[in-house]
Design goal:
The protein is about 70% helix and about 0% strand. The protein is built from 16 helices and no strands.
Length: about 325
């Protein structure tokens, strides 16, 4: 497979997953505001912090109001992590590899992009729940087509690799933001409102029902363990890392538990770190520090994937570079 094609498939998948995750946690925050006690101020700044674009937002918008955050995360074309920017980038990547994906996949992705661009911004602001639900459904339809129509060959594994790495990153960011920014005051701990917030965290990852089947009552430690270390839940960090590692080895043909390049080595080490981690140790040493280090390592894995599979090699001593898309 050409490196150009592999890179476009990889980033197409990452951008779609990113758009869905932005819609997911914004929608959950909107629902959380409806359940919070009367008089408590709504928190919008943590949503921007989840994407890692808080400095850019503060420079351009200043105060984190409802309107400013929704616009920044949804319709702002200058924000590379907004929903419209992610879908546009995914569409451009898909357009360049039309012969490698099915017509149904292209149509669904194009429909999702047109839905966002043609939706009146005023309507999305007044009916945000329906709008963000439509974004999530469009992403699910596209990924369902990918799994059921696309041959599970090298191209499909690059698609899986991009989606799972992006999902692992976003799940870790959601947990990090809740634990340190949305954590209620001491007076709110172990109160019904505390349970509502932790429940909202589970809802943001579509994990509420599966968590209740596994652990029952909501407990902060169990919530963190479920979203980070569960081996069976598809949106947990450990599950994403394990399946991403399988796809990476399927691409290279290297047996699991071995490595032939820096990407396999880094991802294998990261997966092992989560596989043998215990939530009590993670919380004792500092959850924020653990997740911050994880995000840095995951970015390093992303760079190694680029260097191993996508970067153009020098020809006859010439220094040739490939375009590197948004990490």
């Amino acid at each position: 497979m050409l490196s150009r094609v592999a890179e476009s498939i990889y980033w197409m998948s990452r951008y779609i997953e990113r758009a869905e995750n932005v819609a997911r946690f914004v929608d959950v925050n909107l629902q959380l505001i409806l359940d919070q006690p009367v008089g408590m101020q709504a928190q919008w700044e943590p949503l921007v912090a989840t994407t890692g674009d808080d400095e850019e937002f503060e420079e351009r918008y200043g105060e984190a109001s409802r309107e400013a955050v929704l616009k920044f995360l949804t319709f702002d074309t200058e924000n590379p992590n907004s929903i419209i920017s992610c879908l546009r980038a995914a569409r451009e990547n898909a357009r360049s590899i039309r012969e490698n994906i099915s017509s149904e996949m292209w149509e669904k992705l194009n429909d999702a992009y047109l839905m966002v661009t043609e939706t009146p911004e005023e309507w999305a602001m007044t009916e945000p729940h329906q709008f963000f639900t439509d974004i999530k459904v469009a992403s699910h339809l596209f990924m369902g087509l990918t799994d059921n129509i696309m041959s599970h060959s090298e191209a499909w594994h690059f698609c899986q690799l991009g989606r799972l790495i992006e999902r692992a990153d976003k799940t870790s960011r959601i947990v990090d933001v809740k634990y340190f920014i949305l954590l209620p005051s001491v007076s709110d701990v172990n109160t019904p409102f505390d349970d509502i917030q932790w429940g909202a965290l589970l809802h943001s990852a579509s994990a509420f029902e599966m968590y209740r089947r596994t652990h029952g009552l909501i407990s902060p430690n169990n919530v963190v363990a479920f979203l980070l270390l569960d081996r069976e839940f598809p949106r947990s960090v450990l599950y994403c890392l394990s399946k991403a590692e399988e796809s990476l080895h399927a691409i290279s043909g290297t047996p699991l538990e071995t490595f032939s390049n820096s990407a396999e080595q880094g991802l294998g080490q990261l997966r092992s770190e989560f596989a043998y981690a215990q939530v009590d140790q993670v919380l004792h040493s500092g959850l924020h520090e653990f997740l911050d280090a994880f995000q840095t390592k995951l970015n390093d894995v992303g760079e190694d994937i680029y260097k191993t599979f996508f970067a153009l090699r020098p020809v006859n001593g010439e220094d040739t570079q490939s375009q590197f898309q948004m990490q």
